[in-house]
Amino acid sequence: MKKSNKKNAAAMSAVIIIIFTLGSKLLGFVRETLIAYRFGSGIKTDAFVIALTATSVLTKLISRAITTTFIPILSEVEAKEGKEGKISHTNNMINIIGLLGILLALLTWGIAPVLVKLFASGFKDEQFSLTVQLVRIGAPMVFFDAMMGVLVGYLHSEQKHSAHAAVGIPFNMVYISFLLFFASTFGITGLMVAGVIGTISQVLILLPELFSTGFKYEFIFDVKDGYVKKAIYLSIPILIGVAITDLNSIVDKTLGSFLVEGSISALNYANKLKNLVLSIFISAITTVIYPILSKEFSNKNMKGVKSIMNYGIDLILLITIPATVGMVILAEPIVRVAFQKGQFDAVATAMTSQALLFYSISIVISALRSLVTRVYYSLQDTRTPTINSAITVATNIIFNLILIKPMGHAGLALATSISITPSTLWMYYKLRYKIGRLGLKSHLMNGSKIGLISLVMGGVAYFVYHGLFSILGNGLIATAIALGIAVVLAVIIYVVLCYIFDINIVRDIINKGINKAKKIIKK
Predict the structure, then answer these.
(1) What does the CA dihedral 116, 120, 124, 128 come to, rounded to 10 degrees?
(2) Which of 98, 101, 97 is nearest to 228 (CA)?
């Protein structure tokens, strides 16, 4: 396949993922708004956040590692044994990981008090007991998430991304249904039950697309399978890396548990808003690019690896730089419109917007880190990202301890943003020893132009929002209208300026759109 065709196919897949992910995230936004409305930002929501983190920590150790390593392994299997061999090894992996998932779910239930002490040592008495109860209710999620990890790896190796992009839709619908109709009856414990049901729905939505590829389940359990052994071997550094990354979360939440009530919830809500950009757009780019990178490496085509990576970096800069500027400038109205209602009051808005501001400054580097990490994984190098994670955690702990006293929970958010920068730049620099020159000068020039354009866009957004705010007043609907108009105008100005100043990706997309429109008119 030619480079242009690969990029076009990748772009089309990314668009499909963005559409599904956007729907999922909009529902996720409704979910978070309803949680804030029903439970606010306090003891119960802090307990719920810690419980979710504790139940997912062991899950991530399996699902993320298996999904990541399984894609290049399956590309290798298919090249040597064909589709039947690929299905056979996938069935073996499903059964082995399924057994491991059951054992880890039981372990999570048994060591729930230890996990809560680890993640929130500041919790005492009733809050501690509530969190332990929520962890035990959520333990089955470990098994179902583990299953999802294997199935997603197989689907991505087949260049099938739609079902995975859509898993958030049934997941969020379960939550929303509970929050609308049952929250007042079953409370925060019922919310965790909804999480378990939602996780099961994520696995179920994968099955139609899975079977459409010709996959058929059969019971195979062979622990001597060479490819499974290789996947597990490659997974070990990722397991360590995920564990180290989770240590970051443990440190943040443990320190947050000693701060004022609502600090953990404020960090959680702010992090979800920051991750909105990363999960909708950046995950679409990295999800589509990763299997392509793996195939290019399998074919020993380093030129192709660099071409795909550089295209991904340009897309990331185009999306994340203006997103960073927008979130920094409009952090407070974004949080107010998103969450301030019901139990989520003005104090919670102030705390969350402070955290969002400091989380937002790392959007660009977080997105680049995600892409560069997948480049390493496609090269079957899982060791370097693991070392990178260790550097990140060490830096985060240092800055947490420095910033928490003068800045409180906002200091924890800032420490997170600072910590990933040096380690990501180091990892990017080391790539040149693996694949050659990276085109850094071109990226810096492109990023500088986008940065200047984004500052102009941000200035427009700032003055339009505050101008309308002074006219319309400070009501929730008025704030939403002012924010919406400011964002729409800012996006229009950004796109126009990108076209005028010759940002290639934007110019290519607009020109293709114009050409298609001309063809339609001629018909």
Answers:
(1) -30
(2) 97
CA-CA distances (angstroms) from residue 364 to 63, 248, 330, 371, 487?
25, 19, 17, 11, 19
Residue from 419, 362, 393 nearest 250 by CA: 393
Q: Which two tokens stand for residue 368?
A: 């680049």
Closest residue by Cα to residue 139 from 202, 203, 54, 65: 54
Helices (H), 182-225: 183-212
From residue 167, alpha-carbon distances to 17, 25, 30, 57, 259 in Å are: 11, 11, 16, 20, 35
Q: How far apart are CA 94 and CA 80, in angstroms?
A: 21
Q: What is the pLDDT of residues 318-369, one digit of tens each?
A: 888 999 999 999 999 988 888 877 677 788 888 889 999 999 998 899 888 8
Q: Is residue 60 part of a domain?
A: yes
Domain of residue 250, residue span: 40-258
Q: Does 216 map to a domain?
A: yes
Structurally, the chain folds into a number of domains equal to: 1
- Count CB-CB contacts under 10 A for residue 462: 16
Residue 283 φ then ψ, to 5°: -65, -30
Residue reference for tokens 């429109």: 517
Phi then psi for 13, rounded to 5 degrees? -65, -40
Q: What is the pLDDT of residues 143-169, one digit of tens each?
A: 998 888 889 888 888 878 778 878 889
What is the number of other CB atoms lying within 10 angstroms of the CB of residue 451? Answer: 15
Average pLDDT, the chain: 83
Would residue 230 count as lying in a domain?
A: yes
Which CA distances in Å does 108 have to 53, 124, 149, 362?
A: 12, 20, 18, 32
